[in-house]
Write a structure and sequence with these properties.
The chain has 352 residues and is α/β, with parallel strands linked by helices. The strands form 2 sheets. Strands 1-4-5-6-7-8-9 form a 7-stranded parallel β-sheet. Strands 2-3 form a two-stranded antiparallel sheet. Helix 12 links the parallel strand 5 and strand 6. Helix 4 packs parallel to helix 8, helix 10 packs across helix 11 and helix 11 packs parallel to helix 12. It is globular. Bound molecules: coproporphyrinogen III. The site of coproporphyrinogen III (CP3) has 21 residues, from strand 3.
Protein backbone atom coordinates (compact mmCIF):
# COMPACT_ATOMS: atom_id res chain seq x y z
CA UNK A 1 0.00 0.00 0.00
CA UNK A 2 1.36 3.45 -0.90
CA UNK A 3 1.75 5.48 2.30
CA UNK A 4 1.59 9.27 2.48
CA UNK A 5 4.96 10.75 3.45
CA UNK A 6 5.21 11.56 7.15
CA UNK A 7 4.79 15.14 8.32
CA UNK A 8 6.47 14.39 11.66
CA UNK A 9 9.16 11.76 11.14
CA UNK A 10 11.30 12.77 14.14
CA UNK A 11 11.03 9.28 15.62
CA UNK A 12 12.23 7.57 12.44
CA UNK A 13 15.06 10.03 11.88
CA UNK A 14 16.18 9.60 15.49
CA UNK A 15 16.18 5.83 15.10
CA UNK A 16 18.35 6.20 11.99
CA UNK A 17 20.80 8.24 14.08
CA UNK A 18 20.20 11.54 12.31
CA UNK A 19 20.64 14.81 14.18
CA UNK A 20 17.15 16.14 14.73
CA UNK A 21 15.71 19.49 15.80
CA UNK A 22 14.44 17.99 19.06
CA UNK A 23 13.96 14.70 20.93
CA UNK A 24 10.86 12.71 19.95
CA UNK A 25 8.53 11.58 22.75
CA UNK A 26 5.79 8.99 23.25
CA UNK A 27 4.67 6.87 26.21
CA UNK A 28 4.39 3.13 26.59
CA UNK A 29 0.72 2.30 27.26
CA UNK A 30 -0.39 5.74 26.06
CA UNK A 31 -3.36 4.21 24.22
CA UNK A 32 -5.93 3.55 26.89
CA UNK A 33 -5.51 3.55 30.63
CA UNK A 34 -5.20 7.27 31.36
CA UNK A 35 -7.57 9.04 28.99
CA UNK A 36 -11.26 9.60 29.88
CA UNK A 37 -11.85 9.60 26.10
CA UNK A 38 -10.55 6.00 26.01
CA UNK A 39 -12.85 4.94 28.84
CA UNK A 40 -15.82 6.46 27.02
CA UNK A 41 -15.14 4.33 23.93
CA UNK A 42 -14.52 1.21 26.04
CA UNK A 43 -17.77 1.73 27.96
CA UNK A 44 -19.76 1.40 24.73
CA UNK A 45 -18.46 -2.16 24.26
CA UNK A 46 -18.78 -5.23 26.47
CA UNK A 47 -15.13 -5.25 27.47
CA UNK A 48 -11.45 -4.98 26.67
CA UNK A 49 -11.20 -8.05 24.42
CA UNK A 50 -14.11 -6.83 22.32
CA UNK A 51 -12.42 -3.46 21.90
CA UNK A 52 -9.18 -5.10 20.80
CA UNK A 53 -11.14 -7.08 18.18
CA UNK A 54 -13.04 -4.06 16.86
CA UNK A 55 -10.75 -2.44 14.24
CA UNK A 56 -12.76 0.82 13.97
CA UNK A 57 -12.82 1.44 17.74
CA UNK A 58 -9.24 0.18 18.24
CA UNK A 59 -8.15 2.68 15.57
CA UNK A 60 -10.02 5.47 17.33
CA UNK A 61 -8.29 4.92 20.68
CA UNK A 62 -4.91 4.55 18.95
CA UNK A 63 -5.20 8.06 17.53
CA UNK A 64 -6.54 9.69 20.73
CA UNK A 65 -3.13 10.29 22.37
CA UNK A 66 -1.82 11.91 19.18
CA UNK A 67 -4.71 14.40 19.20
CA UNK A 68 -5.02 14.87 22.95
CA UNK A 69 -1.45 14.60 24.24
CA UNK A 70 0.65 15.60 21.22
CA UNK A 71 2.96 12.56 21.18
CA UNK A 72 5.35 12.01 18.25
CA UNK A 73 4.16 8.45 17.54
CA UNK A 74 1.02 6.36 17.78
CA UNK A 75 1.13 2.77 19.08
CA UNK A 76 -1.54 0.41 17.80
CA UNK A 77 -4.17 -0.39 20.42
CA UNK A 78 -4.10 -4.14 21.03
CA UNK A 79 -2.55 -6.44 23.61
CA UNK A 80 0.40 -8.82 23.71
CA UNK A 81 -2.05 -11.61 24.68
CA UNK A 82 -3.68 -11.79 21.25
CA UNK A 83 -0.89 -14.23 20.30
CA UNK A 84 -1.84 -16.97 22.80
CA UNK A 85 -5.45 -16.52 21.75
CA UNK A 86 -4.58 -16.97 18.06
CA UNK A 87 -2.56 -20.07 19.01
CA UNK A 88 -5.65 -21.59 20.67
CA UNK A 89 -5.44 -20.31 24.24
CA UNK A 90 -8.06 -17.58 24.78
CA UNK A 91 -7.88 -15.00 27.60
CA UNK A 92 -10.30 -12.77 29.50
CA UNK A 93 -9.49 -9.36 30.93
CA UNK A 94 -10.98 -9.29 34.41
CA UNK A 95 -11.61 -5.86 35.96
CA UNK A 96 -9.06 -5.04 38.68
CA UNK A 97 -7.41 -8.45 38.28
CA UNK A 98 -5.94 -8.31 34.77
CA UNK A 99 -5.63 -11.13 32.23
CA UNK A 100 -6.90 -14.62 33.08
CA UNK A 101 -6.53 -17.73 30.91
CA UNK A 102 -9.27 -20.33 31.54
CA UNK A 103 -6.90 -23.01 30.16
CA UNK A 104 -3.11 -23.03 30.59
CA UNK A 105 -0.17 -25.07 29.26
CA UNK A 106 1.59 -27.65 31.42
CA UNK A 107 2.16 -30.75 29.27
CA UNK A 108 3.00 -32.03 25.80
CA UNK A 109 -0.70 -32.77 25.25
CA UNK A 110 -1.52 -29.11 25.97
CA UNK A 111 1.07 -27.98 23.43
CA UNK A 112 -0.23 -30.47 20.86
CA UNK A 113 -3.59 -28.75 21.04
CA UNK A 114 -2.01 -25.39 20.09
CA UNK A 115 -0.98 -24.20 16.64
CA UNK A 116 1.26 -21.59 15.13
CA UNK A 117 -1.04 -18.60 14.65
CA UNK A 118 -2.54 -18.10 11.23
CA UNK A 119 -2.79 -14.32 11.10
CA UNK A 120 -5.33 -13.98 8.30
CA UNK A 121 -7.66 -16.47 10.03
CA UNK A 122 -7.18 -15.71 13.72
CA UNK A 123 -5.61 -12.31 14.11
CA UNK A 124 -6.72 -10.19 11.16
CA UNK A 125 -8.30 -7.55 13.41
CA UNK A 126 -5.05 -5.83 14.44
CA UNK A 127 -3.61 -5.44 10.91
CA UNK A 128 -7.11 -4.28 9.90
CA UNK A 129 -7.05 -1.64 12.67
CA UNK A 130 -3.59 -0.58 11.45
CA UNK A 131 -4.99 0.15 7.98
CA UNK A 132 -7.68 2.38 9.51
CA UNK A 133 -5.18 4.15 11.78
CA UNK A 134 -2.88 4.89 8.86
CA UNK A 135 -5.76 6.55 7.02
CA UNK A 136 -6.80 8.50 10.12
CA UNK A 137 -3.26 9.65 10.88
CA UNK A 138 -2.72 10.65 7.27
CA UNK A 139 1.03 10.77 7.84
CA UNK A 140 0.90 13.01 10.93
CA UNK A 141 3.17 10.73 13.00
CA UNK A 142 4.62 7.21 12.58
CA UNK A 143 2.76 4.15 13.85
CA UNK A 144 4.41 1.65 16.18
CA UNK A 145 3.34 -2.00 15.96
CA UNK A 146 4.19 -4.39 18.78
CA UNK A 147 4.20 -7.88 20.24
CA UNK A 148 5.27 -9.51 23.48
CA UNK A 149 8.62 -11.26 23.61
CA UNK A 150 8.26 -15.07 23.51
CA UNK A 151 9.34 -15.50 27.15
CA UNK A 152 6.74 -13.00 28.43
CA UNK A 153 3.99 -14.66 26.37
CA UNK A 154 5.12 -18.09 27.58
CA UNK A 155 4.94 -16.83 31.17
CA UNK A 156 1.24 -15.91 30.79
CA UNK A 157 0.37 -19.12 28.90
CA UNK A 158 1.86 -21.35 31.59
CA UNK A 159 0.90 -19.25 34.63
CA UNK A 160 -2.61 -18.41 33.45
CA UNK A 161 -2.58 -14.88 34.89
CA UNK A 162 -0.26 -12.17 36.13
CA UNK A 163 1.90 -13.18 39.08
CA UNK A 164 4.60 -11.72 41.31
CA UNK A 165 6.88 -14.71 40.86
CA UNK A 166 5.63 -16.54 37.74
CA UNK A 167 6.79 -19.63 39.59
CA UNK A 168 4.83 -22.11 37.42
CA UNK A 169 6.37 -20.66 34.28
CA UNK A 170 9.85 -20.62 35.80
CA UNK A 171 9.40 -24.16 37.19
CA UNK A 172 8.68 -25.35 33.66
CA UNK A 173 12.03 -23.99 32.45
CA UNK A 174 13.81 -26.14 35.08
CA UNK A 175 11.63 -29.26 34.87
CA UNK A 176 10.72 -29.42 31.19
CA UNK A 177 13.32 -27.44 29.24
CA UNK A 178 12.68 -29.28 25.96
CA UNK A 179 8.94 -28.75 26.18
CA UNK A 180 9.58 -25.10 27.10
CA UNK A 181 11.70 -24.65 23.98
CA UNK A 182 9.00 -26.21 21.83
CA UNK A 183 6.40 -23.75 23.10
CA UNK A 184 8.81 -20.80 22.83
CA UNK A 185 9.51 -21.79 19.23
CA UNK A 186 5.80 -21.84 18.36
CA UNK A 187 5.28 -18.44 19.98
CA UNK A 188 8.29 -17.04 18.10
CA UNK A 189 7.00 -18.23 14.73
CA UNK A 190 3.51 -16.84 15.48
CA UNK A 191 5.03 -13.51 16.54
CA UNK A 192 7.15 -13.17 13.39
CA UNK A 193 4.07 -13.75 11.23
CA UNK A 194 2.07 -11.27 13.31
CA UNK A 195 4.70 -8.51 13.16
CA UNK A 196 5.10 -9.00 9.40
CA UNK A 197 1.33 -8.61 8.98
CA UNK A 198 1.40 -5.39 11.03
CA UNK A 199 4.26 -4.08 8.89
CA UNK A 200 2.52 -5.05 5.64
CA UNK A 201 -0.45 -2.93 6.66
CA UNK A 202 1.58 0.08 7.71
CA UNK A 203 3.48 -0.23 11.05
CA UNK A 204 6.57 1.98 10.63
CA UNK A 205 8.46 0.58 13.65
CA UNK A 206 7.82 -2.48 15.84
CA UNK A 207 8.52 -2.91 19.53
CA UNK A 208 9.02 -6.17 21.41
CA UNK A 209 7.93 -6.03 25.06
CA UNK A 210 9.75 -8.49 27.34
CA UNK A 211 7.95 -7.26 30.44
CA UNK A 212 8.99 -10.26 32.55
CA UNK A 213 12.63 -10.53 31.46
CA UNK A 214 13.69 -9.34 34.92
CA UNK A 215 12.44 -12.37 36.82
CA UNK A 216 14.81 -14.72 34.97
CA UNK A 217 18.33 -15.36 36.21
CA UNK A 218 20.81 -14.10 33.57
CA UNK A 219 21.63 -17.61 32.38
CA UNK A 220 17.95 -18.38 31.79
CA UNK A 221 17.45 -15.06 30.02
CA UNK A 222 20.31 -16.11 27.72
CA UNK A 223 18.76 -19.53 27.10
CA UNK A 224 15.02 -18.95 27.10
CA UNK A 225 14.47 -15.35 26.12
CA UNK A 226 17.33 -13.81 24.13
CA UNK A 227 17.61 -16.46 21.35
CA UNK A 228 13.91 -16.09 20.53
CA UNK A 229 14.06 -12.28 20.49
CA UNK A 230 17.10 -12.67 18.25
CA UNK A 231 15.14 -14.89 15.84
CA UNK A 232 12.49 -12.17 15.63
CA UNK A 233 15.09 -9.43 15.08
CA UNK A 234 16.68 -11.47 12.30
CA UNK A 235 13.37 -12.24 10.61
CA UNK A 236 12.08 -8.67 10.63
CA UNK A 237 14.14 -6.75 8.11
CA UNK A 238 11.44 -4.41 6.78
CA UNK A 239 11.33 -1.78 9.56
CA UNK A 240 13.42 -0.83 12.63
CA UNK A 241 12.85 -2.85 15.81
CA UNK A 242 12.88 -1.71 19.43
CA UNK A 243 13.62 -4.28 22.13
CA UNK A 244 12.42 -3.46 25.64
CA UNK A 245 13.41 -6.15 28.13
CA UNK A 246 12.37 -4.86 31.52
CA UNK A 247 14.77 -5.67 34.34
CA UNK A 248 17.33 -7.53 32.21
CA UNK A 249 20.22 -5.47 33.62
CA UNK A 250 22.77 -8.27 33.63
CA UNK A 251 22.13 -8.90 29.94
CA UNK A 252 22.13 -5.33 28.63
CA UNK A 253 25.36 -5.91 26.67
CA UNK A 254 23.85 -8.88 24.79
CA UNK A 255 20.60 -7.00 24.21
CA UNK A 256 22.68 -4.19 22.70
CA UNK A 257 24.19 -6.69 20.26
CA UNK A 258 20.82 -7.75 18.86
CA UNK A 259 19.92 -6.86 15.33
CA UNK A 260 17.65 -4.06 16.54
CA UNK A 261 17.82 -0.29 16.04
CA UNK A 262 16.59 0.79 19.47
CA UNK A 263 16.91 -0.55 23.01
CA UNK A 264 14.32 0.46 25.59
CA UNK A 265 15.60 0.88 29.14
CA UNK A 266 13.62 0.95 32.37
CA UNK A 267 14.02 3.48 35.17
CA UNK A 268 16.26 1.28 37.30
CA UNK A 269 18.89 1.30 34.58
CA UNK A 270 21.62 3.89 34.86
CA UNK A 271 21.59 5.87 31.61
CA UNK A 272 25.40 6.22 31.53
CA UNK A 273 25.75 2.45 32.04
CA UNK A 274 23.34 1.73 29.16
CA UNK A 275 25.27 4.12 26.91
CA UNK A 276 28.57 2.51 27.88
CA UNK A 277 27.56 -1.11 27.17
CA UNK A 278 25.35 -0.49 24.11
CA UNK A 279 26.92 0.43 20.78
CA UNK A 280 26.72 4.18 20.03
CA UNK A 281 24.97 3.53 16.74
CA UNK A 282 21.91 2.27 18.61
CA UNK A 283 19.14 4.56 19.81
CA UNK A 284 18.03 4.33 23.45
CA UNK A 285 14.42 4.77 24.55
CA UNK A 286 13.23 5.66 28.03
CA UNK A 287 13.43 5.96 30.94
CA UNK A 288 11.70 8.34 33.39
CA UNK A 289 10.27 6.57 36.45
CA UNK A 290 6.50 6.30 35.70
CA UNK A 291 5.91 7.36 39.33
CA UNK A 292 7.70 10.68 38.66
CA UNK A 293 4.49 11.79 36.95
CA UNK A 294 2.73 11.82 40.36
CA UNK A 295 4.87 14.83 41.31
CA UNK A 296 3.89 18.49 40.82
CA UNK A 297 4.57 20.22 37.49
CA UNK A 298 7.84 21.86 38.58
CA UNK A 299 9.25 18.59 39.78
CA UNK A 300 8.17 16.78 36.57
CA UNK A 301 9.93 19.46 34.51
CA UNK A 302 13.08 19.16 36.58
CA UNK A 303 13.21 15.35 36.43
CA UNK A 304 12.48 15.34 32.69
CA UNK A 305 15.27 17.85 31.97
CA UNK A 306 17.67 15.84 34.05
CA UNK A 307 16.79 12.70 32.09
CA UNK A 308 17.26 14.53 28.76
CA UNK A 309 20.67 15.82 29.86
CA UNK A 310 21.78 12.35 30.89
CA UNK A 311 20.86 10.83 27.50
CA UNK A 312 22.46 13.63 25.50
CA UNK A 313 21.13 15.23 22.35
CA UNK A 314 20.95 12.38 19.86
CA UNK A 315 20.01 8.74 19.54
CA UNK A 316 17.35 9.18 22.22
CA UNK A 317 13.58 8.68 22.19
CA UNK A 318 12.05 10.11 25.35
CA UNK A 319 9.62 7.77 27.11
CA UNK A 320 8.91 6.42 30.57
CA UNK A 321 10.81 3.44 31.94
CA UNK A 322 7.62 1.32 31.69
CA UNK A 323 3.97 1.88 30.86
CA UNK A 324 2.22 4.98 32.22
CA UNK A 325 0.28 4.16 35.40
CA UNK A 326 -3.52 4.20 35.04
CA UNK A 327 -4.16 6.84 37.72
CA UNK A 328 -1.79 9.49 36.36
CA UNK A 329 -3.57 12.66 35.34
CA UNK A 330 -3.35 13.49 31.62
CA UNK A 331 -2.19 17.02 32.58
CA UNK A 332 0.89 15.57 34.22
CA UNK A 333 1.57 13.44 31.14
CA UNK A 334 1.24 16.55 29.00
CA UNK A 335 3.72 18.38 31.23
CA UNK A 336 6.27 15.59 30.59
CA UNK A 337 5.65 15.71 26.82
CA UNK A 338 5.80 19.51 26.60
CA UNK A 339 8.99 19.63 28.66
CA UNK A 340 10.70 17.13 26.35
CA UNK A 341 9.68 19.16 23.33
CA UNK A 342 10.61 22.59 24.67
CA UNK A 343 13.79 21.74 26.54
CA UNK A 344 15.30 19.54 23.82
CA UNK A 345 14.46 22.06 21.06
CA UNK A 346 15.99 24.84 23.10
CA UNK A 347 19.16 22.91 23.81
CA UNK A 348 19.48 21.89 20.18
CA UNK A 349 19.05 25.44 18.87
CA UNK A 350 21.83 26.62 21.18
CA UNK A 351 24.13 23.87 19.89
CA UNK A 352 23.52 24.70 16.22
O1 LIG B 1 1.00 1.03 24.55
C1 LIG B 1 -0.21 1.16 24.26
O2 LIG B 1 -0.87 2.08 24.68
C2 LIG B 1 -0.84 0.17 23.29
C3 LIG B 1 -1.73 -0.76 23.90
C4 LIG B 1 -1.19 -1.86 24.82
C5 LIG B 1 -2.04 -2.53 25.73
N1 LIG B 1 -1.33 -3.55 26.28
C6 LIG B 1 -3.44 -2.20 26.00
C7 LIG B 1 -4.03 -2.58 27.30
C8 LIG B 1 0.08 -2.45 24.90
C9 LIG B 1 1.39 -2.10 24.19
C10 LIG B 1 -0.04 -3.54 25.82
C11 LIG B 1 1.08 -4.43 26.14
C12 LIG B 1 0.97 -5.35 27.26
N2 LIG B 1 -0.12 -6.04 27.70
C13 LIG B 1 2.08 -5.76 28.05
C14 LIG B 1 3.51 -5.32 27.82
C15 LIG B 1 3.76 -3.94 28.29
C16 LIG B 1 3.87 -3.80 29.77
O3 LIG B 1 3.18 -2.91 30.31
O4 LIG B 1 4.66 -4.51 30.39
C17 LIG B 1 1.60 -6.67 29.01
C18 LIG B 1 2.44 -7.35 30.08
C19 LIG B 1 0.22 -6.86 28.77
C20 LIG B 1 -0.73 -7.75 29.49
C21 LIG B 1 -1.82 -7.01 30.13
N3 LIG B 1 -2.84 -6.36 29.45
C22 LIG B 1 -2.04 -6.80 31.52
C23 LIG B 1 -1.15 -7.33 32.62
C24 LIG B 1 -3.21 -6.02 31.66
C25 LIG B 1 -3.94 -5.62 32.94
C26 LIG B 1 -3.34 -4.49 33.63
C27 LIG B 1 -3.11 -3.25 32.78
O5 LIG B 1 -3.97 -2.38 32.69
O6 LIG B 1 -2.04 -3.18 32.21
C28 LIG B 1 -3.66 -5.71 30.35
C29 LIG B 1 -4.84 -4.90 30.02
C30 LIG B 1 -4.66 -3.78 29.09
N4 LIG B 1 -3.93 -3.79 27.95
C31 LIG B 1 -5.30 -2.52 29.22
C32 LIG B 1 -4.91 -1.77 28.09
C33 LIG B 1 -5.36 -0.38 27.73
C34 LIG B 1 -6.27 -2.09 30.34
C35 LIG B 1 -7.55 -2.84 30.18
C36 LIG B 1 -8.76 -1.97 30.30
O7 LIG B 1 -8.99 -1.11 29.47
O8 LIG B 1 -9.48 -2.23 31.26
Amino acid sequence: MKQPSLKNDLLLRTIRGEKTERTPVWLMRQAGRILPEYRAVRAKLSGFVELVKNPERAAEVTIQPVDILGVDAAIIFSDILVIPEAMGLPYDMVESRGPVFPRTVSSQADIDRLKVADISDDLAYTPEAIKIVKKGLDGRVPLIGFAGAPWTIFAYMVEGSGSKTFSKARAMLYRQPTLSRQLLGMITESTIRYLKAQIADGADVVQIFDSWAGILPPVHFEQFSLPYIQQICEAITEVPITVFAKGAYANLTEIGQLNCATVGIDWNTEISHARSVISPDKTLQGNLDPAALYADFDQIRQDTRQMLDAFGSHHHIANLGHGVYPDISPDHVRCFIDTVKEYSANKRSKLL
